[in-house]
Specification:
Layout: H1 22-34, E1 53-56, E2 62-65, E3 74-78, E4 83-88, E5 95-97, E6 100-102, E7 104-109, E8 112-117, E9 121-122, H2 137-149, E10 152-162, E11 165-175, E12 179-186, E13 189-197, H3 201-215, E14 228-232, E15 237-244, E16 249-257
Antiparallel strand pairs: 1-4, 1-9, 2-3, 4-7, 5-6, 7-8, 10-11, 11-12, 12-13, 13-16, 14-15, 15-16
Length: about 260
C-alpha cells in the first residue's frame, strides 16, 4: 500500500493507549487525528462513464426507453440485478425522479439498446436478502458482504496495547479499484469502515438501504440528502456516512458495542 488514510470519529482512537510499535504506527495515527472532513455536494450524483458495467438496483425493475424521457417508448423492463453497459452519457441534463438525482444514459443490455435513468444503477455489488446476522446485524453483514464481493489485493494489521493487554486491533484491506476496508476490534466494541473511491452517495444509499431492510431497521428516512450524517441504527450500532473531497471517497463507518 502506498498510502493509508483511516478517518477518525470519537470512538475510533483511545488517546490513553500505549503504542509499542511507535515507528510503524506514527504515520497511521497522524492520519487518523488530522484527517479533515471536506465535503463536496457534486459527488452526490452519479458520474458513470462509457463502457461502465452497471447493475439495476430497482426492485421492481428499470424501464428501457427509446428516448431520454419518461415519454419515450418502453422497449423492455430490465429486472433487478440485470447488468447493462454504458454506451453514451450525453443524453441530457440532470434529472430528478421521486427526489432521486440522476440523468439519462444510453445503455446496452443483451441485444437491446435504449435509455435508462441512472438513479437506479450502481457499480457496487447488490446485497442479498439472505445475508443477515443477528449479532450486530448491520456491521457484521456489511463486513462479510464486502469481504465476499470485493477483490482484496493487499492487507496489513496493526495492534495497540494498553497495560499489557490488547486494546485496539486494526485490519486494513486494500480493494481492487482503489477502495479500502478497515476493521477495528476493541476491548468491548467493534468498528468497520468502508472507503469507496469514486462512488456516488446515491450508490452508497442503495447499499445502506439494502442492509437496513435486511436487518429490519429501515425506517424510511434514507436516502438522506446531506453529504454528512450520523444515525443510530439501534441500541448498539451507529452509522456515519460522508464524503472526503480531496480523495473523492464515500466513507461508510459503523460502530457496534458499549
Amino acid at each position: 500500500m502506498e498510502k493509508i488514510e483511516v478517518y477518525n470519529q470519537n470512538w475510533i482512537l483511545n488517546p490513553h493507549s500505549i503504542i509499542l510499535s511507535r515507528e510503524e504506527m506514527r504515520v497511521l495515527i497522524w492520519f487518523i487525528i488530522v484527517s479533515c472532513f471536506l465535503f463536496s455536494s457534486n459527488l452526490s450524483a452519479q458520474d458513470f462513464k462509457i463502457n461502465d458495467k452497471l447493475l439495476v438496483c430497482a426492485e421492481s425493475g428499470l424501464v428501457l426507453r427509446s428516448e431520454p424521457t419518461l415519454k419515450g417508448e418502453k422497449l423492455g423492463l430490465l429486472k433487478y440485478g440485470s447488468e447493462v453497459m454504458v454506451i453514451d452519457t450525453s443524453a441530457g441534463n440532470p434529472y430528478v425522479y421521486e427526489d432521486i438525482e440522476g440523468k439519462w444514459l444510453f445503455v446496452e443490455f443483451q441485444e437491446m439498446k435504449g435509455f435508462v435513468f441512472d438513479g437506479f444503477l450502481t457499480r457496487l455489488p447488490l446485497f442479498p436478502d439472505s445475508l443477515i446476522y443477528d449479532h450486530f446485524c448491520f456491521m457484521t453483514s456489511l463486513e462479510i458482504f464486502c469481504k465476499a464481493n470485493f477483490e482484496i489485493v493487499d492487507s496489513i494489521n496493526y495492534y495497540n496495547y494498553s497495560n499489557g493487554e490488547g486494546d485496539h486491533k486494526m485490519d486494513i484491506y486494500e480493494i481492487k479499484g482503489g477502495h479500502l476496508m478497515v476493521s477495528h476490534t476493541y476491548w468491548e466494541s467493534n468498528g468497520f469502515e468502508l472507503q469507496l473511491k469514486g462512488i456516488s452517495k446515491r450508490e452508497g444509499d442503495i447499499l445502506v438501504n439494502s442492509i437496513l431492510k435486511a436487518c429490519g431497521c429501515y425506517n424510511g428516512k434514507f436516502p438522506i440528502k446531506s453529504d454528512y450524517f450520523t444515525y443510530a441504527l439501534n441500541d448498539q450500532e451507529r452509522l456515519k456516512m460522508f464524503y472526503e473531497q480531496y480523495s473523492k471517497k464515500l466513507i461508510i463507518q459503523v460502530y457496534a458495542g458499549l
